[in-house]
Structure formats: structure tokens, C-alpha cells
Amino acid sequence: MIRNFKISALAILFIVVNYTAMAQIQYKLDSKSSTMLVKGTSTIHDWEMKVEEVGGSITLGEELNLDKLTGGNLSIHVNSIKSDQNLMNKKAYEALKEKDHPLIKVKILRVEPDQGKVQLELTIAGKTGNVNEDFQLANQSNGTIQVKGELDVKMSDYGVKPPVALMGTIKTGDDVKIAYDLIYHK
């Protein structure tokens, strides 16, 4: 009798776990259709760097039901953040400690899709912190999902010393803005 109960309980648990796993629908980032820019200031001019290599996914509890967004993540390859100037790229990679921490990681902790708010866990240069941001989420006519917004980051919060050049005469500001327009597909 106890053995039959254990088998029945195990079977029910297996069904519940499988149903829950099936209900989660993952959408992968389409890196070719997505854009991400890092924007900042310096003592001379504003600057911008394009993120060329980013991967990730989001998870919905129901297909194309944005109110059921349950999680997601992004991985940004530090050495794919590029400007038109090689010296600027080199200084950025050094500041972001690219050799020890080649990825910037973003994880969704909590989301309120109806209010356009998200809490993220952000890991930069090996240091992790939480940020709350506004974002836009939309279904596209071709069955993809668009996530759009701007993330404000203070580099020093992550142990990143803003880069300097020409013996300190050119200094970058501590605040950067990450503008993103991400497209996800099933």
C-alpha cells in the first residue's frame, strides 16, 4: 500500500513538473535584428559605442502573452562593445576588466509588464548589483517580441573606474546609458 502511494505520488509530481516546464515558452534574442548602444560623456565630447555581440532569452508563461513574462537573461561580450576609435575600445576593455570578466550579464529578477517596470541583476566587471528600470514590451506582427528601453548605469557602482586618456586630460563621465531595442523569436 505504501509502495503504491509512493509510486502514485511520484507519478503526480512528474506530471506537474512536466506541465510546468511545458507551460514555459522561451524566446531567443535575434542578435541581427537587435541593437544596443552604450552612451556617455567626456571632457571633450559625448561618445557612443555599439554592442556587436549579445545573446539571451526571455521566458513567457503563455505564448505571446506579455503579461506572463516570467524571466530572462542577456550576455554581452565586452570585446564586442566597439566605437570607431581603437584607443577608446582598448581603454573601455581595460576599465571593464575584460580579461578577467569577458561578459556583462543581465538577469530579470522581477517584472511588471503591465506597468513597464523591471528589476534586473546586472553583473559588470565581476561585480553584481540590482537596478530598477522602465521598459517597453510589444508583440510584433511577425510573431516576434520587442523589448525596448534605456538603462542608466553608474560605472563606479560596479568597480569600474571611468577611462582617461592623454595623461588625464580627457576623462569620461561616471554615468552611462545603455539604449536597447531587442527582438526575440520563438
TrEMBL record:
Residue runs in coiled coils: none
Family annotation (SUPFAM superfamilies): YceI-like
Gene3D superfamilies: Lipid/polyisoprenoid-binding, YceI-like (2.40.128.110)
Stated name of the protein: YceI family protein
Source organism, top-level taxon: Bacteria
Domain Lipid/polyisoprenoid-binding YceI-like intervals: 26-185
